[in-house]
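Risk mitigation, structural track. In case the binding assays with 5-hydroxymethyl-3,4-dihydroxypiperidine fail to produce interpretable data, a predicted complex structure has been prepared as a fallback.
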Amino acid sequence: MTSDNRTFPADFLWGAATASYQIEGAVAEDGRGPSIWDTFSHTPGRTVNGDTGDVADDHYHRVAEDVALMAKLGLKAYRFSTAWPRIQPDGRGPANQAGLDFYSRLVDELLANGIQPWVTLYHWDLPQALEDLGGWPSREVAERFAEYAEITHAALGDRVRHWITLNEPWCTAYLGYGNGHHAPGRTNGADALAAVHHLNLAHGLAVRAIRAADPGAQVGVTLNLHSLLAKTDSAADQDAVRRIDGIGNRVFLDPIFKGEFPADVARDVAGLTDLSFIQDGDLATIAAPLDFLGVNYYSRSVVSGPEDDEGFHDSHSGAWPGSDKVQFHTRGLPVTQMGWEIDAPGLTALLERVHAEYGPIPLYITENGAAYADEVGADGQVADPDRIAYYDLHLRECAQMAADGVPLRGYFAWSLMDNFEWAWGYEKRFGLVHVDYATQVRTPKASFSWYADVIRNNALITAPDTGK
Ligand code: IFM
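Fallback model:
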């Protein structure tokens, strides 16, 4: 149940997040190479309306204006990602200085406004040249990632203290290589599992590279962990939870925090792979100690097992290799524009579990937010009461968790501004700031002022006006 606690610890970090391909545009400027998302979004039928990130929010040319908005919001931290193909156009070899200069200017602008830069090194825009070499199912990409991390840290590490290696490797592996809904659009469960391991390895190698150069750096990873409920207490439904937890959560958490690959998942996927891509020493590399864990949370999932006796697995593609017959259910709860059910207590259940089983480790919510079909009204304002209500519900959970001793240190709203929502294109609006894509005019929404009040007060003082 959502609590009435509405205040936050004095040092709670208030932020907002974006990602390179979703906002930057300028895809062919200053030496940037093509990424898998350029290729994918330009392939007919892959994104809604054929939308691409070619221009997006044109943030590449509007850094000063966008940082001014962040300052107005009162952000203490801004989480953004660096585009690997801007820094290494082919994913290997010497740095493209113009790409590094862009991020260096952004970092300087943030610091000049008193905003901590939090850099995510990988938010899905893999250089196309590395996909052509085999992509994340190939071990070489993990090695190249460590080199890219080192180059990026060398350019920005004198000013950036917080580094996130990967954003949501679940999406990269299973949506990119399992069901093909994301770039590069491949559909092979065994490849997805190899990608999981090489993403974990890339993370561990990057942590090692950053620590070697900068022992004082704060390094973590961002996972979109699944908060799960069984549809019933039947054995099949309980097993569905175990399986989705294994393939969705523990294949990342166990290697990273325990240096182990979950044995039950190895059994679940035995029909697809023998996991021989896990080499001696890899798990120790992956388990390099971290300074924090970032968790992205939007909704909770209810799952059930198959109704027949034919087992959980019958397909070689899909987002849940080895467990593709697990069913996902809705409960009739209110949904956001994405169709995702709103379930704020699911966030508490998730973080309490992570803290109990994988802690102690400082936790940050590195994304949380909601899409709605916002419009600029005749009065020039954007009223988004549903988004405010969504934030309010989730932040009440956060306040209570912090009071209850869960080491939750900060919160990043997703997103600072409307942007390219991947295969959904520009239809889904997650921003605190509305973006008119034809004119690039930015209009802060009502949620922007509301969140600014939360940050200023370090508390949820203004109750949401749901307009209902
Ligand atoms: O827009 C995405 C973001 O890139 C990753 N996390 C989920 C968000 C909403 O779908």
